[in-house]
Structures are given as structure tokens and as C-alpha cells.
Design goal:
Order of helices and strands: EHHEEEEEEEEEEH
Strand content: 25-35%
Largest sheet: 3 strands, antiparallel
Helix content: 25-40%
Structural class: alpha+beta
Distance between the termini: 50 Å
Radius of gyration: 25 Å
Length: 211
């Protein structure tokens, strides 16, 4: 499974640091840097998820299950926010508020959907799917079906479109794509937070040395 870094935060991004660390040994500086990096990356993780859910119709719980924070520790003076980026972690379109549209059927012949999770009556059929990624959209040629779990019908749903004799499972933007889009828009804010946090932590370590 591919893991892609959307934001990497490192101490070399901080301007004006050299003059502050002359009075610190390596251990004291490492302590300050780790604390500052982890404070910054945790705040960035919260900020990025908030920005994503504000602009995109996807739940915070879904984001939390597909994003993680790798904290700085020891001599690793770098922190990252990562998201899975392989095909298995693409976001199924059903997660974007998919709603099945039901319309009357012109025949009373039992629907193939009867007896499945869809539970459509004999006088009804699917008439499209309404989704909301950035804005509401009706896909008149799409429909919802239960996904298989092994050889059996599972409980999860998917949005499909028929292409020729095949069914195409439809996906929306992956979590990595959403996060990468936001990261470029918050990087200046993150850099400012890191600068403030690291200089504060360095000053705290200097105070400990002098007392």
C-alpha cells in the first residue's frame, strides 16, 4: 500500500534559528525541536481536516481513518502527515452523500433489486444517483448496488455506471488528493506556526540552562 506524504515539517524551515541555539547543547536543541515539531504537526492535522470538510462533503471520521501523523522523535527532527494513495484507498463515490433516486416503473415485473439491500418495490426502480462532492449533482445514468464481500453480497454500497456490458464502480477524489490540495494553501500558515513554536521551545531550553 502506497503511503504518500502530504505535508513534511522540518526544523530547517525555520528562519533566524542559528543565533538562538548557540547556548544549547545537542540534546537540549533536540528536545526543543521535537516538542515544537509535534505541536505544529498536530495543529496542522486538525486544520487540514477542518479545511477539507468545509469545502467537501466528506466526514471527519472518514478522513481520520485514512490519514495519520508521524511525529518527530529522538534524532528524527521531522514530522509528517501522510495519507494512503493507492487504488484500494480511492474514495468510493458513495461516501460523498450519495442518495438513490427512485422513480416509478412502467411494468409490474419484479425488479432485480427486490430481495437485495436496496429493497425496491415492484412498482419502483432507480432513476439515478444524487451526490455532493463540492456541490450537489444528479447522475441520471448511475445506480447503486451492494458490494460483494468475497462471493457473497456485502452490506456496503457502491455507485456504478454501465459501460457497454460492464459495470464501472465510480470514485471521487481520494483523501490524499483532497489533503494535497489543502496543503499548498496552508503551508505559509504552518511555517509561521513552526517558527513561533520552535523559537518558544528553544527559549524555554535556554532558560533552563541559565537557571
Amino acid at each position: 500500500m502506497a503511503r504518500l506524504s502530504a505535508i513534511t515539517i522540518a526544523v530547517d524551515q525555520v528562519v533566524g534559528l542559528a543565533d538562538r541555539v548557540a547556548d544549547l547543547d545537542a540534546q537540549a536543541f533536540s528536545t526543543a525541536a521535537v516538542a515544537a515539531l509535534n505541536t505544529t504537526v498536530d495543529a496542522t492535522y486538525e486544520l487540514a481536516r477542518d479545511r477539507i470538510t468545509t469545502g467537501i462533503n466528506i466526514t471527519d471520521d472518514y478522513l481520520r481513518r485514512r490519514m495519520s501523523v508521524e511525529h518527530a522523535k529522538g534524532s528524527k527532527l521531522q514530522a509528517e502527515i501522510v495519507a494512503s494513495g493507492d487504488a484500494q484507498r480511492m474514495t468510493r463515490l458513495v461516501h460523498y452523500g450519495a442518495q438513490m433516486l427512485i422513480v416509478p416503473r412502467k411494468t409490474t415485473t419484479p425488479s432485480r433489486s427486490q430481495g437485495s439491500l436496496l429493497r425496491l418495490g415492484s412498482g419502483s426502480k432507480q432513476g439515478g444517483v444524487r451526490v455532493n462532492v463540492k456541490s450537489p449533482k444528479t447522475m441520471v445514468d448511475a445506480f447503486m448496488l451492494p458490494l460483494k464481500r468475497g462471493s457473497q453480497q456485502g452490506e456496503k454500497m457502491g455507485v456504478f455506471r454501465r459501460e457497454g456490458n460492464k459495470l464501472k464502480h465510480l470514485y471521487g477524489p481520494s483523501v490524499y488528493q483532497l489533503f494535497r490540495y489543502q496543503s499548498s494553501r496552508i503551508e505559509d500558515e504552518v511555517a509561521g506556526d513552526l517558527q513561533a513554536n520552535l523559537l518558544d521551545q528553544v527559549d524555554e531550553q535556554i532558560r533552563k540552562v541559565l537557571t
